[in-house]
Amino acid sequence: MKEKGKTAPFHILGIDPGTNILGYALIQTNGQQIGLTFMGVLTLSHLDSHQEKLKSIFERIQELIDQYKPDEMAIEAPFFGINPQSMLKLGRAQGVAIAAAMTKGLPITEYMPKKIKQSVTGNGNASKEQVAAMLGHLIKNPIDKRFLDATDALATAVCHHLQRNSPLAGSSGGGSWSRFLQENPDRVK
User: Fold this and answer.
1) Is 76 part of the annotated catalytic residue set?
2) What is the CA radius of gyration of the chain?
3) pLDDT digits (tens, 9 = 90+) for 142-179
4) Cα atoms found within 13 Å of the Cα of residue 66, Cβ hemisphere only
5) d(CA 111, CA 149)
6) In the prediction, which pLDDT does 7 show?
7) Is 2 part of any domain?
8) CATH of the domain at 107
9) pLDDT value of position 142
């Protein structure tokens, strides 16, 4: 596993699980710079059974991992407040995505939607448009409207990058002051 703060590029696969549309994005980071490698969606609405959808999710996540060899995966946690049946299906989709990454030995971090929005925009209640605009600014490339369904996955990957590089993130998905000081002795006088 690559160490953060080093000059080698670090790749993060972001996943926004869904049973009709699953968003995914891969970013490459080098220090504080963030570059978008790709983003896209897996459309599942044409499949009749929930089991077929889960199988497709598992296979696509494994294909992405095999093809792009990310260093870590970040996934959006299901949010509360939707009907129980939808929540159950969404949880299964998330579980299958996690299992696909686990079987490939990929470290996984889960983030709540509010945490993702807050990390990217500074506002945990930001709109999808605000998140997309800030992502365009962070990756220095406007988000193509064809990929708006994948912006949550991109935001999840960017959130993970920001969290893992924050000395204030602690054990909840990032660094610590002691690790920051160890990795950056030149920044301490």
Assistant:
1) yes
2) 16
3) 777 677 779 999 999 999 999 988 766 544 444 445 55
4) 8
5) 18
6) 63
7) no
8) 3.30.420.10
9) 78
Residue range of the domain that includes 52 = 10-187
Q: By the 8 A CB rule, do 41 and 80 touch?
A: no
Q: CA 56 to CA 141: how far, in whole Å?
A: 30
Please report where in the chains the tokens 């996690």 appear, as a residue. Answer: 98
Of the listed 59, 63, 72, 149, which one is catalytic? 149
Instruction: Tell me whether residue 144 is one of the annotated catalytic residues.
Output: no
Task: Judge if pTM exceeds 0.85.
Answer: no
Catalytic, out of 59, 72, 76, 183: 76
Asked if residue 1 belongs to a domain, the reply is no
Q: Is 183 a catalytic residue?
A: no
Instruction: Collect all residues with Cβ–Cβ distance below 8 Å to 20 and sequence separation of at least 6.
Output: 43, 44, 45
- Give per-residue pLDDT as tens, 57-104: 999 999 999 999 999 999 999 876 667 888 888 899 999 999 999 999
Q: Is residue 115 part of a domain?
A: yes
Residue 3 lies in a domain: no
Q: Which residue out of 3, 16, 110, 186 is catalytically annotated?
A: 16
Q: Check whether 1 has a pLDDT greater than 80.
A: no
Number of domains in the chain: 1
